[in-house]
Amino acid sequence: MIIDPSEQQLSHAVPRYARVDVIGGVLLMMFAFLIWYGAIELEFGTIADIKSGALPKILSVALVLAGIGVFLEGLFQSPESSERLEIAVRPAALIIFSIGVFGFFIRGGKFGLVSTPQFGLLVVGPLTIFIAGCAADRLRLKSLLILAFGLTSALLLIFVDVLSVNIPVYPKAVGDLLNSHLGEYLALRAGYIAYAIAALGLYVILYMLPERNRG
């Protein structure tokens, strides 16, 4: 019996509801709506005076547009060329765990029967990035360490210093102590400058010096 190649392709075709792009587009739009809902009471401000609600609302609109684009692309893909969603348990669990760490410890608080301390972005940022980075297929610890400190420094510079988004920077006791002695802005800048220096130092120690020694 000879099987027609076109029939064989159709037998392996992925239905629309199971396509990666279709599901990914829906998840992006859902995530965007959650961000918008969380920032709905925050003031947007103006171009000259950007308030704390501007960034999450702009991000949510961008995510909705991206989600629509990804969804439509998956919807109109040819059945034989589309990719089926297959959930890898370990990476998914690590990503969810990293989100939980960020949500529970960035500000701290009481969550039902559980109370968590405020660790601030300087502690939670690198930890979240490192845990999420461990979900990658090829784990590169050196690069991940540099990224954890460097990206946290950039987040503090852009969101907290430049855009004045109200995000805790230090653990509460440390933050209160530093703010009383250095002032809020000096303590903030000392934090992200120290992390930028740490990222640069790690890059030199882990990459540049070994390369020079081999040369």
Structural account:
There is one protein chain. The protein starts with a helix and ends with a helix. The protein folds into two domains: 86 residues; 122 residues, no CATH class. The radius of gyration is 22 Å and the shape is globular. The protein is mostly helical and 215 residues long. 66% of the residues lie in helices and 3% in strands. The longest helix is centred in the C-terminal third of the chain and has 31 residues. The N terminus is likely disordered.
What are the main properties of this structure?
8 helices, 215 residues, globular, two-stranded antiparallel ribbon, mainly alpha, 66% helix
End-to-end gap: 63 Å
Poorly predicted runs: 1-11
As laid out across the biggest beta sheet, the strand order is: 1-2
Shape descriptor: globular
Tell me the quaternary state.
Answer: single chain
How many domains is the backbone divided into? Answer: 2
Task: Furnish the topology, listing elements before pairings.
Elements: H1 5-11, H2 20-38, H3 54-75, H4 89-105, E1 109-111, E2 114-116, H5 121-133, H6 141-162, H7 172-182, H8 184-214
Helix pairs in contact: 2-3, 4-5, 5-6, 6-8, 7-8
